[in-house]
Amino acid sequence: MVNIKSMIKIIKYNARILFGVNTIVAALFVGAMPFVFSLNNIEYSQIAKIAELYLPIIGIILLSYITSIERNNLIEEFSYTKKFRFNYIFLIRFFINTMLISFLLAVLFLYAKYQGGIFPFHKVFIGCLVTTIYLGFLALTAYNLTKNLSVGYMIAFSYYFFEFSTKGKYTKELYLFSLLKDSFSEKIYLAIGGIILLIVNVILIKYHGENL
User: Which residues fall within 8 angstroms of residue 191, CB to CB, at 6 or more apart?
Assistant: First the structure.
């Protein structure tokens, strides 16, 4: 059993090693939105485009690599995480970066509201968050299957561009960009899909993942 003190220690440790280039790139990407797009008095149709077509990319950036750290870092970090079951480490890292994603998105949308934005905050925020995590999980699942981060990026971006070009013609209820059609029901199915992918990744890590 892992006691509370050890759990707090491992959460702090993983928060530290997760912080790096990916975190900085994601923060800069979100931070650039007010400079690229005018958020003053922004209406739903405009914020939906930002929420669906641009911001979900940070899910790929922040979730795809969370099980690859031991392959890229020093033996010291491998030895430290060896004390804990790696599926627990995975869930901790997922929680940390999901909280970061939520924070970045919330700050941007709240800023847009502060600038006079006319849109339903919770609908846009939750819809964007679901899409962001779902895309990130696609990249992560591909990595855990292949142990190749480039494949993870390729799969996620291929799906992204497929959805962009077909506009949900084939994916129907799993259409990534449903907010563009002012529809939220697809996000429920994406959330269910995300939960399934989370379970799949836990299983992959437990039986076929890093030998920690």
Answer: 130, 134
Sign of the Cα pseudo-torsion (156, 161, 164, 169, in order) = negative
Domain ranges (residues) in the chain: 4-208
- Give the CA distances from residue 66 to residues 28, 32, 156, 190, in Å, rounded to whole numbers and listed in that order: 19, 24, 15, 21
Which residues lie closer than 8 Å to 82 by C-beta, 6 or more apart?
212
Percentages (nearest 5) of helix, strand, coil residues in the chain: 75, 0, 25
**Contact present, 81 and 67 (Cβ < 8 Å):** no
* Residue 79: CB atoms within 10 Å: 11
pLDDT in tens, 30-54: 999 999 999 999 999 999 999 999 9
SS3 at position 11? helix
Distance CA 186, CA 102 (A): 20
Give the model confidence (pLDDT) of 50-67 as tens digits. 999 999 999 999 999 998
The answer to whether the pTM exceeds 0.85 is yes
**Structure letter (DSSP) for residue 43:** B
